[in-house]
Amino acid sequence: KEAFRDAERPFELVHVDFVGPIEEVSLGGARYGVIFTDEKTRYVNVYCVEYKSSFLSLLEEIHLRCEGFGT
């Protein structure tokens, strides 16, 4: 059994939580929330999305933004 280790660099390990549907719709029409937490820095970013199907494109966008960060 492999022991869990902390991330050594920012964005090496990111936790993602998906929330929703939320009863109250945002002003922009979002009913879901996506929460990204960086293991190293504990930086948290929350995104509001209108549809569950938007999650994959958001994840790809975030991955591109974080790629190479902290290396």
Please, could you describe this protein's structure?
By secondary structure, the protein is of the alpha+beta class. The protein is elongated, with a radius of gyration of 14 Å. It has one helix at residues 55-66; strands at 14-19, 32-38, 44-49. Strand 2 and strand 3 form a beta hairpin.
Layout of helices and strands:
Layout: E1 14-19, E2 32-38, E3 44-49, H1 55-66
Antiparallel strand pairs: 1-2, 2-3
Percent of residues in β-strands: 25-35%
Number of strands: 3
Helix % is: 10-25%
Strand order of the largest sheet: 1-2-3
Q: Structural class of the helix and strand makeup?
A: alpha+beta
Can you summarize the main beta sheet?
3 strands, antiparallel
Q: What's the end-to-end separation, in Å?
A: 28 Å
**Quaternary class:** single chain
Elements, N to C (H/E): EEEH
Radius of gyration from the alpha-carbon trace, in angstroms: 14 Å
Q: What overall form do the CA principal axes indicate?
A: elongated
- Contiguous runs where pLDDT drops below 50 for at least 5 residues: none
Number of helices: 1
Mean pLDDT across all amino acids: 86
